[in-house]
């Protein structure tokens, strides 16, 4: 089931603590054939409970603070990129060539938001950047042939499948392993209010797009010193960075450099979002990271998981929806559809943050590093295995306005979604707005 209890169980949490969570149910939020609202509530609830648990431990509280969820806040956060305004301007969330297309025997989904992915798609098709020419070229080819040829060229396209046609074994929702027995750097008790369970925790953020940045944005909300590190020559889309950069700093740095090695020696958590094996070739496998920094929490986030024939492939939420059968379930006769939010990205992001918080809690008792693995495909399998949405009664959902706020930033005046992660005594907003991508010094604060 896609409920808080099952998410909390996947994180290794004490089942008794689930009773500390309550929710304002809003049946109109995130409507879909699949239980998207339940999944979103579960992921955010598990994250907030993990934060409350760690806050109680570090502050010496007798009880874990209560968690209060609101489906309106959750739905607004899960569609946050659609609500972002930068000086009144709404960003484009998908490029024109990122969409469903008819193939000769079905449908394909392409992703061309990044310029290099668009160039590789067009090179395979042998056509210019023209909608009609792209559509005509794709319509002549079988979907699986398009999938393989675009992938071979370094682009992104997947054939739309039914759930029965997607046969990859999903693996556990959250994979958790202990790495070594060395004790990590001791964290001081958090001071003052609000309760910041991740205060003093240093996080190296090696992620891009949505899921990983949502996770590290959440850790920043909870007090962590999050430094996003991107490689030279691979800039992030500016609006995407504006949406997920709250609370963090951002720097450009080669991970093979001596400066990165210095940062690693002071880190508590490293979150990676590159294809499985991509960082191993640079000496950043989990074993090598924990050998260089004993007690480290290492997170590996991927689209398809680490095993199976697609383990080394790139992917995005929309592509995983298409490949795993979600698009077929949510579509209409003759045309695939999509979830009401990029729920695999956002859900996995909150689960990832929850997994890090739980690892920090567990580590405080028994020491040792941790390896955590999550993927969008595993979250998709969890959603597909969930029951059809039950008829729920509750409060009305009249849109996102109640859960949006504004602030000034170095990027301009921002309108953005408030955090849905709430527990008694905890933070309600980020301590800093996003700044320009790559503009910060490569150091810990």
Secondary-structure map:
Blueprint: H1 4-10, E1 21-24, H2 36-59, E2 67-70, H3 71-78, H4 80-83, E3 85-86, E4 100-103, E5 106-110, H5 115-125, H6 131-139, H7 143-152, E6 157-159, E7 175-179, E8 202-206, H8 211-221, E9 225-230, H9 238-244, E10 249-252, H10 258-265, E11 269-272, H11 286-292, E12 297-302, H12 317-324, H13 326-330, H14 343-366, E13 369-375, H15 376-385, E14 404-409, E15 412-417
Parallel strand pairs: 1-2, 8-9, 8-11, 9-10, 11-12, 12-13
Antiparallel strand pairs: 3-15, 4-5, 5-6, 7-13, 14-15
Question: Could you describe the 3D structure shown?
Answer:
This protein has helices at residues 4-10, 36-59, 71-78, 80-83, 115-125, 131-139, 143-152, 211-221, 238-244, 258-265, 286-292, 317-324, 326-330, 343-366, 376-385, and strands spanning 21-24, 67-70, 85-86, 100-103, 106-110, 157-159, 175-179, 202-206, 225-230, 249-252, 269-272, 297-302, 369-375, 404-409, 412-417. The protein is α/β, with parallel strands linked by helices and 445 residues long. Helix 2 packs across helix 3. It is globular and about 65 Å long.
């Amino acid at each position: 089931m896609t409920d808080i209890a099952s998410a909390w169980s996947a994180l290794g949490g004490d089942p008794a603590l689930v009773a500390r969570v309550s929710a304002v149910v809003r049946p109109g939020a995130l409507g879909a054939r699949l239980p998207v609202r339940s999944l979103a509530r579960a992921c955010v609830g598990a994250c907030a409970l993990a934060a409350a648990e760690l806050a109680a431990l570090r502050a010496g509280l007798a009880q874990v603070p209560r968690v209060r969820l609101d489906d309106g806040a959750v739905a607004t956060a899960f569609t946050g990129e659609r609500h972002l305004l930068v000086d009144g301007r709404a960003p484009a969330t998908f490029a024109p060539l990122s969409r469903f297309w008819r193939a000769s025997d079905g449908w394909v989904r392409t992703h061309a938001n990044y310029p290099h992915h668009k160039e590789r798609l067009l090179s395979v098709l042998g056509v210019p950047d023209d909608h009609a020419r792209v559509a005509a070229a794709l319509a002549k080819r079988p979907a699986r042939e398009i999938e393989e040829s675009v992938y071979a060229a370094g682009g992104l396209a997947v054939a739309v499948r039914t759930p029965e046609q997607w046969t990859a074994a999903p693996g556990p929702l959250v994979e958790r392993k202990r790495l070594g027995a060395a004790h990590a750097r001791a964290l001081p008790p958090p001071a003052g209010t609000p309760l910041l369970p991740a205060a003093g925790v240093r996080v190296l953020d090696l992620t891009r797009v949505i899921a990983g940045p949502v996770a590290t944005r959440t850790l920043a909300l909870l007090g962590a010193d999050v430094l996003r590190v991107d490689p030279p020559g691979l800039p992030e889309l500016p609006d995407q960075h504006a949406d997920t950069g709250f609370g963090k700093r951002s720097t450009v740095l080669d991970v093979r450099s001596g400066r990165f090695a210095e940062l690693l020696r002071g880190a508590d958590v490293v979150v990676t979002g590159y294809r499985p094996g991509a960082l191993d070739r640079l000496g950043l496998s989990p074993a090598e990271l924990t050998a260089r920094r004993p007690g480290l929490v290492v997170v590996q986030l991927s689209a398809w998981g680490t095993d199976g024939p697609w383990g080394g492939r790139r992917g995005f939420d929309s592509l995983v929806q298409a490949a795993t059968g979600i698009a077929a379930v949510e579509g209409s006769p003759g045309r695939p559809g999509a979830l009401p939010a990029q729920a695999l990205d956002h859900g996995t992001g909150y689960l990832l943050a929850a997994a890090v918080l739980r690892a920090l809690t567990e580590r405080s008792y028994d020491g040792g590093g941790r390896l955590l693995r999550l993927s969008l495909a595993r979250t998709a399998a969890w959603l597909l295995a969930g029951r059809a949405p039950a008829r729920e009664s509750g409060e009305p959902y009249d849109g996102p306005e109640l859960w949006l706020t504004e602030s000034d930033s170095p990027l301009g005046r921002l309108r953005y979604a408030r955090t849905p992660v709430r527990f008694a005594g905890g933070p309600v907003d980020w301590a800093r707005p996003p700044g320009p991508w790559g503009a910060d010094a490569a150091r810990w604060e």
